[in-house]
Amino acid sequence: MSKFDDLVEEYEFLEADDRYRLLIDLGKELEAMPDALKTDATLVRGCSASVWVYPTKQDDGRLHFLADSNAAITKGIIALVLETVQDQPIDDVLKTDIAEKLAPFDLKNQLSSNRTQGIPNMIALINETAERYQS
């Protein structure tokens, strides 16, 4: 079972407050993003909180993302989104339906619209990055 599958299973059994804690804890596990990378160029548009994502292509062709937010729950959502594709080969990233993988978390009904409005923009950024690196 992957870490993502474990998260889905755990999330299903939690009450609302514990789900928030799970997201916050997940955000705390994100790899630190250097402040120098938190620029206008890495800022994800459409998020209520500040969200930065910096993609890199590893030597073995896998995509790795550094990300951060100034809001704890938003940072957890970012971590959850990245968990679907982090360190995957570019072709696998392009084949992944991130929104579908996130469906079990029902984020739109679990969180306020302010907290989830940037998710489609993050997914688009991931897909655009994979397409750019594939070319």
TrEMBL record:
Domain (Fe-S metabolism associated): residue spans on this chain: 12-128
Domain of life: Bacteria
Pfam family, one: SufE
Residues making up the signal peptide according to the UniProt record: none
Coiled coil, from the record: none
InterPro entries tied to this protein: Fe-S_metab-assoc_dom
Listed PANTHER family: SUFE-LIKE PROTEIN 2, CHLOROPLASTIC (PTHR43597:SF5), SULFUR ACCEPTOR PROTEIN CSDE (PTHR43597)
Family: Belongs to the SufE family.
Identification of the protein by name: Cysteine desulfurase sulfur acceptor subunit CsdE
Species of origin: Parasphingorhabdus litoris
